[in-house]
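Input (structure):
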């Protein structure tokens, strides 16, 4: 152990350095070293207090020094030939808390701090893995996608959204996280749409969206993978109502591209879509959240289409446009097609 003091342009830098610790907390795991950067105004006794505490954790190296400008907590895993090494930068705050990227510890939190550093070699390696959608690794995303590909084998008509979530959640190995306020919101009305046979992910995203809510797969460092119910926020990536298919629209729904003679007069949009339903051969799912927000009532909007020969999709798109709506062919997690009707924009993106 040593204490070094230096004066640089009038700023006193204090560095406590501890060497000679053997290995890491976990046998065979990557060794861990930590630099504790003292925030201006930290208690004068804090360096010695934290040096003593960190010295009990079996870390490879502990250094306590002054904080550099704009320095933030950070954990990095460095890989070299045949070995790996974990470097931690923590901030010692003026409130005498040890601030790490995802946790804060007080001087009496020795047990929790020991547990944190015991898990760190595993979580640091996890944190360095390549990330994709929802900040998940490919394996994590495929795990969630597999869960949400579960087909619904029961009638959804008459169920509350909470009952739908609870019933589907029992079949998932990934926990679905809720709270009292979301439970109350999801219990106030019953579903009127039949989603039997649909994949769970698309069905849940559809049911939740009408209430301004969404699904968010999440994997926090050191925590298990989970699926959270969250309030919709355009800046947060959430599970979509369906996906873009690798197959062409004509392959997915060939009947939509068949030519026929069509005339529509004296119908509301809702009745016109209902009349066309037997020919469509794909479900038409309406974005009820957008409809409510924009004040669009499909049962009240009158639509017309003069007599002529056209293909079915074009006819549907033309009557949707009379209600300021658009449609898009999508698939659920099982690859089953449906026609999603919404008003595309920042709050209703095209399928990925």
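Output (sequence):
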């Amino acid at each position: 152990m040593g204490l070094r003091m230096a004066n640089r342009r009038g700023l006193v830098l204090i560095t406590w350095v501890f060497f000679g610790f053997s290995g890491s907390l976990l046998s065979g795991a990557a060794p861990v070293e930590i630099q504790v950067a003292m925030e201006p105004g930290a208690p004068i006794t804090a360096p010695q207090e934290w040096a003593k505490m960190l010295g009990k954790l079996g870390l490879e190296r502990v250094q306590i020094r002054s904080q550099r400008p704009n320095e933030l907590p950070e954990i990095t895993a460095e890989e070299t030939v045949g070995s790996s090494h974990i470097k931690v930068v923590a901030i010692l705050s003026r409130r005498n808390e040890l601030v790490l990227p995802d946790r804060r510890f007080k001087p009496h939190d020795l047990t929790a701090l020991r547990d944190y550093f015991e898990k760190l070699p595993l979580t640091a390696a996890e944190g360095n893995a390549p990330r994709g959608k929802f900040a998940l690794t490919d394996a994590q995303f495929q795990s969630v996608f597999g869960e949400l590909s579960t087909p619904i084998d029961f009638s959804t008509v008459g169920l509350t959204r909470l009952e739908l979530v609870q019933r589907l959640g029992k079949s998932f190995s990934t926990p679905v996280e809720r709270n009292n306020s979301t439970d109350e919101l999801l219990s106030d009305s019953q579903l009127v749409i039949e989603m039997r046979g649909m994949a769970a992910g698309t069905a849940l995203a559809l049911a939740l969206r009408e209430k301004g809510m969404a699904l968010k797969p999440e994997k926090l460092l050191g925590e298990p993978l989970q699926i959270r119910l969250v309030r919709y926020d355009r800046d947060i990536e959430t599970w979509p109502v369906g996906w873009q298919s690798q197959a062409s629209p004509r392959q997915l729904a060939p009947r939509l591209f068949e030519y026929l003679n069509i005339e529509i007069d004296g119908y509301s949009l809702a009745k016109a879509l209902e009349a066309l339903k037997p020919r469509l051969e794909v479900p038409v799912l309406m974005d009820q959240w957008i409809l409510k927000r924009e004040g669009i009532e499909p049962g009240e909007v009158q639509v017309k289409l003069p007599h002529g020969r056209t293909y079915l999709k074009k006819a549907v798109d033309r009557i949707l446009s009379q209600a300021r709506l658009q449609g898009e062919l999508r698939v659920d997690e099982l690859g089953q097609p449906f026609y999603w009707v919404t008003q595309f924009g920042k709050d209703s993106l095209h399928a990925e």
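Notes: Confidence is low (pLDDT under 50) at residues 1-14, 19-24. Residues 110-127 form the longest helix (18 residues).
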